[in-house]
Design a protein that fits this description.
Blueprint: E1 5-8, H1 14-23, E2 30-34, H2 35-41, H3 43-51, E3 55-62, H4 66-79, E4 83-87, H5 92-101, E5 103-104, E6 107-108, E7 111-115, H6 123-128, H7 137-150, E8 155-157, H8 160-170, E9 175-178, H9 197-203, E10 207-210, H10 212-215, H11 220-235
Parallel strand pairs: 1-2, 1-10, 2-3, 3-4, 4-7, 7-8, 8-9, 9-10
Antiparallel strand pairs: 5-6
């Protein structure tokens, strides 16, 4: 489970970020670098995490014309990231071009993951913003996940509500990364579609992204360990 927990380093100061890395050393092996800290610290934070022997999930959610996204992925590969995200709403051509950029000859240099619908969104978003009245969030996630697989992507980001269906339709090898993870009794903050660590693993999630429940804890290592224990409880039922 240690390699399936991704801690989101969403903090606003360089010192706190490096404090977190030190406190979680030996407990956490995978970190998410999102737009907040990448904007603050740039590529150096990726290099530093990699030099500590950890993996990096670069969550910048590339969303642009195909050529621009492809060049962004080539740059990210140069940083040594293990996984990165693009928006599936960028369209099929963008996703397909992005996936081609992830290969160097016959070797895949990084995993490309498609962001479907953010876990802060509800069905109202589809109606109010996209003008979609005949689909639910879950249905839209499945449509986007199918498109992502057709374009060759390695997997998608989706809430626990969609994991079973994605795995059933697209296969166990298709990666599903689940954010919005909250231990029982924890504050859900701005997330709408949330789940417990045990529930997410039991439903088939491959990786869990956890931020505030660990980062806001007085003892971060203990909080991460407890989440890993909850993930292990769901392990025995980690089936479709």
């Amino acid at each position: 489970m240690k390699n399936r927990l991704i801690v989101a380093l969403d903090r606003g100061s360089k010192q706190e970020i490096y404090n977190i890395l030190s406190e979680l050393d030996g407990v956490v092996a995978y970190y998410k670098v999102g737009m907040q800290i990448f904007t603050l610290l740039g590529p150096d934070i990726v290099y530093d995490i990699k030099n500590r022997g950890h993996k990096v999930f670069l969550d910048l959610k590339f969303h642009d014309i195909p050529n621009t996204v492809a060049n962004g992925i080539i740059s990210a590969i140069g940083l040594g990231v293990d996984m990165l995200t693009i928006h599936t709403l960028g369209g099929f051509e963008m996703m397909e071009t992005a996936m081609k950029a992830a290969w160097e000859g016959d070797k895949k240099m990084t995993n490309v993951i498609g962001v479907t619908m953010l876990t802060s969104l509800s069905d109202a978003f589809l109606m109010d913003i996209l003008g979609v009245y005949d689909k639910t969030i879950k249905e839209m996630v499945l449509i986007l996940a199918n498109s992502a697989k057709s374009a060759g992507l390695d997997g998608v980001v989706a809430s626990v509500n969609e994991v079973k269906e994605i795995k059933r339709e697209l296969g166990k090898e298709f990666i599903v990364i689940t954010p919005g993870i909250r231990p029982i009794g924890d504050n859900i903050f701005d997330q709408v579609r949330v789940s417990t660590p045990e529930e997410a693993i039991r439903n088939g999630s491959d990786y869990l992204v956890v931020g505030r429940p660990i980062l806001d804890a007085k003892d971060r290592a203990k909080a991460a360990t407890e989440i890993l224990e909850q993930m292990n409880k769901g392990k025995n039922n980690d089936k479709l």
